[in-house]
Write a structure and sequence with these properties.
The protein contains two helices and 27 strands. By secondary structure, it is mostly beta strands. One of its GO terms (molecular function) is metal ion binding.
């Protein structure tokens, strides 16, 4: 892990990117007994290319995401606390702990399960972020793959003694992230700022970008105060964004900045299937139901963690 300390923040951007809108993360049900706060993939913000969905999940015992399919997209899961087990029909399996990430490319088709590790009494809650990202047309039919990134591998930079930045994907204050984690160009930066701290973060030209706040209050571009559980969608004007935590605040701010390169292509989405045309979606349903064209390995397959999950739920209902 690379860690770098700097004496002061970089120059403030003038003008910064404008604020297009601020969208509350609406709490909703998802999966099997799970609750999430969703800020992309809602009527207020259907998508922000290449981003299709952003969920801030809070999973209790007995909740999870048993066997389910994907096609035509990538998912990025960032475990903030607790741990999540995953398993898919290609034979990949593993666990991501607090601070770890999983980059999954569904490509032509994958079926997998994501189940929280059993909660230890007094232990941390299972909390994290999951982002769905559209795949460019040329990669819609690529082979599925997983890539895990351990928290210990993520570079960290401290522009001041009040700021910590985890450079998961992209660049911040001269620190580059680990490369080749996802096919779609995406930046993901995790910030923690104490009261009185500030940052100025450049963003790639012509990319869509947003800020998602998880705790505390931030001031964006010197004027807009934003509380936790909000998505701040930025315009494409300007070169970056300025964020500060007022010295009068009583809580540290915890937030992420994401940016992605939008593809010049149509998006037709039905749940976890993302294609270019309605015809492609109909064909995806046919392929999934008939176990063909990428879903051959589904025939007779069921994840072990999914079986155990259902057994635990049945036992808890009987008790």
């Amino acid at each position: 892990m690379t860690s770098r300390n700097m004496s002061s923040p970089s120059q403030i951007f003038t003008p910064p990117r404008s604020i297009a809108k601020v969208i509350p993360a609406v709490e909703t049900s998802e999966g099997d007994g799970a609750r999430v706060r969703r800020s992309i993939g809602t009527p207020q913000l259907r998508r922000l290319p290449p981003f299709l969905m952003l969920d801030h999940f809070f999973l209790k015992d007995g909740a999870g995401f048993p066997d389910h399919p994907h096609r035509g997209q990538e998912t990025i899961t960032y475990q903030l606390s607790g741990a999540t087990n995953h398993e898919d029909f290609t034979g990949s399996a593993g666990t991501i702990q607090a601070g770890d990430l999983q980059f999954m490319t569904a490509g032509r088709g994958i079926v997998h399960a994501e189940i929280p590790a059993p909660h230890v009494p007094g232990g941390p809650d299972n909390i994290g972020l999951q982002l769905w990202v559209d795949l460019p047309a040329r990669l819609k039919n690529c082979e599925p793959r997983y890539r895990d990134l351990r928290g210990s591998e993520v570079p960290i930079v401290h522009p001041s003694d009040k700021v910590e930045i985890k450079v998961i994907s992209g660049q911040s204050y001269g620190i580059d992230s680990v490369k080749d984690l996802a096919y779609t160009p995406v930046w993901l930066l995790h910030f923690k700022i104490q009261p009185g701290g500030e940052v100025s973060q450049p963003l790639p030209k012509n990319w869509n970008s947003f800020i998602y706040t998880m705790s505390g209050n931030i001031t964006v571009n010197g004027s807009k105060r934003v509380e936790k559980f909000n998505n701040v969608v930025l315009g494409q004007d300007g070169n970056g964004v300025n964020i500060a935590v007022d010295p009068s605040e009583t809580e540290d701010a915890d937030f992420v900045i994401l940016a992605g390169e939008p593809a010049d292509q149509p998006v037709v989405q039905y749940g976890p299937f993302v294609q270019l045309t309605e015809r492609d979606i109909y064909k995806t349903f046919e392929d999934y139901q008939e176990h063909k064209n990428g879903f051959e390995r589904l025939k007779g397959w069921e994840s072990k963690i999914g079986k155990e999950f259902h057994l635990r739920r049945r036992h808890s209902f009987r008790v």
